[in-house]
UniProtKB/TrEMBL annotation, chain A:
Part of the binding-protein-dependent transport system for D-xylose. Probably responsible for the translocation of the substrate across the membrane. It is a multi-pass membrane protein. The chain crosses the membrane at residues 33-50, 56-81, 88-106, 112-135, 142-164, 184-204, 216-236, 268-288, 300-333, 345-365. It comes from Rhizobium giardinii. It comes from the Bacteria. This is Xylose transport system permease protein XylH.
From TrEMBL, chain B:
SUPFAM superfamilies: P-loop containing nucleoside triphosphate hydrolases. It comes from Rhizobium giardinii. The keyword Hydrolase does not apply. The lineage of its organism: Bacteria, Pseudomonadati, Pseudomonadota, Alphaproteobacteria, Hyphomicrobiales. This is Simple sugar transport system ATP-binding protein. Residues 13-253 form the ABC transporter domain.
């Protein structure tokens, strides 16, 4: 204990109880630490057990494609969680947005850009409604968005039957969308020229006719990386980011300090819904059709990825880059097991264990960070 | 701000006959008080006397149902805490001032982050923020090695001091402190009281709410006692003794008996 004569108000006398902040403490303070450690572990595991082809370029792309679709949702879910709320309706929102997008293109014959605009606007509006209900009623977002999980899934079913005349799958979307730069933004692969060049120069594998085995990076991966970068920058470097942390950390304190808590939360709900809409647009364009099961259980997977990425369930702490790694871990495990001798049904066991470990680890870190005992 | 204004300057905050009803509950039924620059006004009163309600109206959290509220002689009506902050009235709450999981720097600049860069790339200048935070905390005698450490790791007294330093830095004219010492130990209390004195020397008006008459007597110039939503009276430090003030606060006799049994001190 510090002796009584410890001078109060004498700053020249530095407090001997504060240790120099070491590199380790600095690293410990980063919420994504657990996810990075987890990623290293998982990669090491597959390196030892899996077939080498998993680590080839094409193996990497098969893992990254689903990981990126989940990741876009996970990053948005992470931002919302840091802001102190959940959204259990994102999976259903993917299906609902898919329906709106598909129906706008086929039933209403709208051009692609209008279909995208309508889908995004409607998703944002639905998200904002979610947010406003949570804020005004002060009910937990868990229960409000659980209601929307069912409402949106049900609306999708009803809507699909209406749009198709009784079926739960809406087809023919591929036929009505013509190729163009806008479509290229949301479907297919990017950097084709680069990959052809790499193949021509013998840097990556190619077929006998000279076509590279991997023709490019799926656009969803590009979106995923761009969104992760942008979200991280916004969280750590901008005023809005500061308010997101504050809104989740202690909304009353944030309000008393003049932070716009309600606007931030509403915005985050809208953003999460838009992320779901983006995933819907990308997957619907790739498949050329949409159905009622699209995005099924994605809300849980997104939240799990966010938690593995270091987000606290209580809000106010977490990172976007952590969710990025969390989604990659998810993709690695779900696809990776097929490259091993293990039954791929181990996936869920693996996942549950990861989640439990992550939560325990996050709790431990939180205590470290806040000095809470 | 450091030189004191002449006696004729209007008080920074003055309320006359302020009334606040919560439905059928009358929390304030005609309270008057004022605080001038470079003065510490202590607001005393028993539980439920209406102290917190009064400062909530001053800090824009609730709107008064009636009465006059003047800031520097001009009538005002606040709609949000933000309005009060902009008018130079800063309030430090016991628990609601800081976000424990966030760094000292981020807490210090919450809601008033300095930005740099052109719009789409506009970002908070955290390097500058950290420097200012370290410097301001140094001025009040708290040496923070690392401004990025979470506020949760600070002691209660240090947290209060960060909140006060923040209010002073952002140019508050009046500082309102709602029971800042209620959860603090002896050393931490003296740290906060010393800092209140320092803030007063700078020329700010301070409204200090406490249940502890000794703490009030240590830093106060004037004492306003509330009882059941009314002002019982306002006294200069020269007009009243510690014992008299204590009795007035608790409403008289009962306390003396107890106080006798406890050996004369509370
Ligand atoms: N939101 C509210 N709704 C209804 N009544 C309220 C509300 N807030 C305060 N009151 C009532 O107003 C009266 C004054 O409360 P206030 O919190 O201002 O007292 P206080 O002097 O701060 O007490 P303490 O010393 O215990 O903090 C109390 O009788 C309380 O029950
Ligand atoms: Mg009170």
């Amino acid at each position: 204990m510090a002796p009584i004569e410890q001078k109060i108000g004498d700053a020249s006398n530095s407090d001997e109880r504060i240790k120099q902040v070491g590199f380790l403490t600095h690293m410990m303070r980063r919420p994504e630490l657990g996810a990075v450690a987890g990623l290293i572990l998982v990669v090491a595991f597959f390196f030892l057990t899996a077939d080498r082809s998993m680590f080839s370029l094409s193996g990497l792309m098969t893992i990254l494609a689903p990981a990126s679709q989940l990741g876009i949702l996970a990053i948005a879910a992470a931002l919302l969680m840091i802001g102190g709320e959940f959204d259990l309706s994102i999976g259903s929102m993917v299906a609902f947005a898919g329906l709106i997008f598909g129906a706008a293109l086929t039933n209403f014959g709208q051009p692609l850009w209008i279909a995208i605009l309508i889908t995004m606007l409607l998703a944002a509006a639905m998200g904002a409604v979610n947010g406003q209900i949570v804020i005004r009623t002060r009910l937990p977002s868990f229960i409000v968005t659980l209601a929307f999980l069912f409402i949106l899934r049900g609306l999708t079913l009803v809507g699909l039957k209406w749009a198709t005349g009784g079926s739960t799958q809406l087809r023919g979307i591929g036929e009505v969308v013509s190729d163009g730069p806008l479509k290229g933004l949301f479907s297919g692969v990017a950097f084709q020229d680069l990959f052809s060049w790499l193949a021509a120069n013998g840097l990556i594998e190619k077929f006998d006719n000279g076509v590279p085995k991997v023709t490019g990076v799926p656009v969803s991966v590009v979106w995923f990386i761009a969104i992760a970068g942008l979200a991280t920058w916004v969280l750590l470097r901008t005023r809005i980011g500061n308010w997101v942390f504050a809104a989740g950390g202690d909304p009353n304190a944030a309000r008393n300090s003049g932070g716009p808590v309600d606007r931030v939360k509403t915005g985050l709900f809208a953003l999460t819904a838009c992320a779901a809409a983006l995933v819907a647009i990308i997957t619907v364009l790739d498949a050329g059709s949409t159905d009622a099961r699209r995005g099924f259980q994605k809300e849980f997977e997104a939240i799990i990825a966010a938690v593995i990425g270091g987000c606290l369930l209580t809000g106010g702490y977490g990172s976007a880059i952590g969710a990025f790694f969390g989604a990659i871990i998810f993709g690695l495990v779900s696809i990776g097991l097929t490259y091993t001798k293990f039954d791929s049904d181990w996936f869920q066991v693996f996942l549950g264990s990861m989640l439990l470990l992550a939560v325990l680890f996050n709790n431990f870190i939180r205590r470290k960070v806040t000095g809470e005992r | 701000m450091t030189d004191r204004k002449s006696e004729t300057a209007p008080p920074v905050i003055e309320v006359k006959n302020i009334i606040k009803h919560y439905g059928s509950v009358i929390a304030l039924s005609g309270v008057s008080m004022k605080v001038s620059q470079g003065e510490v006004l202590c607001l005393l009163g028993d539980n439920g006397a209406g102290k917190s309600t009064l400062i909530k109206t001053l800090s824009g959290v609730v709107r008064p149902s009636g009465g006059d509220f003047l800031v520097e002689g001009k009538p005002v009506a606040f709609n949000s805490p933000r309005d009060a902050l902009d008018a130079g009235i800063a309030t430090v709450y016991q628990d609601l001032a800081m976000i424990p999981l966030m760094s000292i720097t981020r807490n210090f600049f919450m809601g008033r982050e300095p930005v740099k860069g052109i719009p789409p790339f506009r970002r908070v200048d955290f390097k500058y923020c950290s420097e200012v935070t370290r410097e301001e905390m140094h001025k009040i005698g708290i040496d923070i090695r690392d401004p990025n450490q979470a506020v949760g790791t600070l002691s209660g007294g240090e947290r209060q001091c960060v909140a006060i330093a923040r209010a002073v830095y952002f140019g508050a004219k009046v500082l309102i402190l709602d029971e800042p010492t209620s959860a603090l130990g002896v050393a931490q209390t003296s740290m906060v009281l010393k800092y209140i004195h320092q803030v007063q020397q700078k020329g700010l008006g301070v409204i200090f709410i406490t249940h502890n008459v000794r703490h009030a007597f240590a830093v106060g110039n004037r004492f306003t006692v509330l009882n059941r939503g009314k002002t019982l009276g306002t006294f200069d430090k020269s007009e009243i003794s510690l014992e008299e003030l204590q009795n007035l606060m608790a409403g008289g006799k009962e306390l003396q008996v107890i106080s006798h049994e406890l050996g004369g001190t509370i």
